[in-house]
Amino acid sequence: MDHSNDSNRTRRSTLLGALSCASLLALSAGCGDDSSTSDGATAGTTDTGDSTSGMSNASTEGGTDSGSTSGVTEGTDTTAADESDTSTGADGSAFDQAVDAVGGADALEALEGLQITASGTRHIDYEELEPGEIVAITNYSATYSFDVPNERFRVDKERVSLFEALQFFPPAVFSVVLDGNVGGLSAQAAFVPPGPMPSQHVGALWTQQRLLNPHFYLREGLADSSLVGEGGEEDVDGRPHRIVTFAGPGEEIRLFVDEETGFISKLETRENHLLVRDVDIEVRYADWDMRGSLAFPQAVELLSAGQVIHEETRTGVQIDPAFEDRTFDLPREAGEPAVDEHAFEFGQQSHAALTAFFSLIAYVDEEPMFMPQPLGPGLTLLAGQTNSLAVSYDEGLILLEAPTSPAHGTNLVESLETSFPGTPITHVVQSHYHYDRSSGVRSLVAAGATAVVGHGVGEFWDEILSAESTVRPDALASADVVPVVEVVAEDATFSIGDENVSVTAYHLSDNPHSNDMLITAVELGGQRYVYVGDLYNAGFGATLVLGGPESFFAGLRSTGLIDTTCTSDVPLTIVPSHGVPLSLADSLAELQGLGVDVGCPPVVR
Description:
By secondary structure, the protein is an alpha+beta fold.
């Protein structure tokens, strides 16, 4: 997927960092200008021949805003069906039947522009109290605009957060413009500031739009019949269907064509999930109806591992609307975005997880930057978007937290091998199972570490550590190791250490964020360090998990790490997964300043 010789597209030479205010460290310093809008000041480039960018091989997150500035002028009438623009497949193939059902080859090939208005709900998986549950994270309305031949896309969206403390944020109103394999965001969206969109999210957003609109696969098949395959027959909801196949960025795309109506009932493929690895993706299309020269499904659902994570209702479709001149110009905030082909492919292959997390709060970087920093003798903070903590003892190293992705986990392993050559990593202690917190665990296990996890997720982790990882193979996929999992019993402890250092993980059942939650205390050199994931973001300046700080401090008291007056018998530092290490006194002062009552006496300074 090398576009380096593409003479039709201006190449951006400067890679603007994908790290954003998704990093709570960065957020504490400010997240950009909420008033920013997309006015098209930076002209977008066009590409009529690059079949590996944009709509030719990728997809995006859906949403619609009936009052958006999508740039369509009045007067385009697309309400009447044009029956004359259909064709009948000469060989009666499933592909030809599907083409005829949506309006015919002539109408598909003539498609220049498309605009869809829609509303819906986005859910996220592996972020609830326990595995197997999903949670609604946003309601949205959006207008999607497509410049089809030039592979340009725009979505104008209003998004209302439903998740924990984020539900108190005002609605996010923003535009995303994609021009081939670059893109930009016009205004603040949760913790994502306006600016260039990283390549992995450009790839993910293109992929989503292709999955939601199978017309793009049919257009490609008309342009090149060698892309189309036969996949046999199968019943769907008791009705016979024939299967049309296409190559996908991960595994093949399978379209299920109703033998009677010719409409596509569903799409199946498989892609990469950061935590659970190979995951089945299904898209269901319902209520096909003619909208001008082409038929579109009025309701679409996208499922991951059998659970609906994206549901959308289309409220309007226009074929070949008259777009305003600057509709597809990149937002001025995007500057000159660069292309990272490896990241773009990661986004294509992992679209469901990436678009979900963007809907929730932030971008996902497969390999986020981090910096090893000594925190104390034998204690190393791996500081970044998400902090990990490495503890040295006589048998090797213990790592607290392996977040983000398998690639991130591998980078942590390599960093520790450089800093502590010849020293094995014996354990990885995971605060909780949420996929933004734990997707690097497999790489640590591949390096020989025992996974230490909380109550109730032992079987879940057995499945994760034995899962197939073929779409985007990770270190564990080829490692010759037998995974070992230690489960901390309900409200119990698990300890590791030597005569100089002790590491104790405490299961904290009474918390609002995750039922398997562990907090981990490191005792060395007459000091105590307590690692906490998500419940309290020390130094962050806000509370994201409702009731999180209260439950964390209640846990510190119930475990004896502090006494009933919130005093520690030794100097205590809180090390958060997001934020900066703070002393106990500074943490209490911060929480008091935020008006959060954690059951401790007032701090006087």
